[in-house]
Amino acid sequence: MNIIFKKASHSELPDALKFFKLASLALQEKKVNQWDYWQNPPKDKIDWVQEGFENNEFYFVFDLSGNKIAMFRLLETDTLYWEEKGLENDVRYVHSLVVLPSFGGKGVGKAVMLKIIEQLKQENIKKFRLDCNASNLRLCQYYESYGFQKVGEKITKYSVNNLYELSLG
């Protein structure tokens, strides 16, 4: 699948919040207890998204027809989930990979993950990390299918998250 990554602009912040809400509603329909807070996001979550936009860490994903079909946040450091390990060099962290529900099940998530991994390898990044709600076993297995290894756990006020790492080097 051919996709294009574009850094999100500040004016697209409402689009990001809409993506989160749509994903939350889709998860709710599937009876997956994750991201309910995006239906009426608390201040700390909105602040987290705004920070990502200010740091130019959010990307939107487009198909070749110009449709905005997914988004993600890519960080160079992540102490919120990874604490001191989150400051290591040659590591990248992906958060908030959201595929619009209307494009779900079409391989978009896989295409996004493979393209991110390919780009990180080209940049000589050694490790790729992410977190995943531990109660979402299907999503945990999805990331494990890429070779991500569970290396820890992080408890937040919203969930228990598995910490995953993929060696790229």
Intertermini distance: 25 Å
Unreliable runs? none
Q: Please report the number of helical segments.
A: 5
**Named CATH topology:** Aminopeptidase
Beta content comes to 25-35%
Pfam families: Acetyltransf_1
Protein name: GNAT family N-acetyltransferase
Keywords: Acyltransferase, Transferase
Briefly say what this structure is.
33% of the residues lie in helices and 30% in strands. With 169 residues, the protein is an alpha+beta fold.
Protein described:
The chain is an alpha+beta fold and 169 residues long. The chain has a single domain, classed as Gcn5-related N-acetyltransferase (GNAT) (Aminopeptidase, 3-Layer(aba) Sandwich). The protein is 33% helix and 30% strand. Strand 6 and strand 7 form a beta hairpin. The radius of gyration is 15 Å and the shape is globular.
Any descriptors?
Acyl_CoA_acyltransferase, seven-stranded mixed β-sheet, 169 residues, YpeA/RimI_acetyltransf, acyltransferase, transferase, 30% strand, 5 helices, alpha+beta, GNAT family N-acetyltransferase, 7 strands
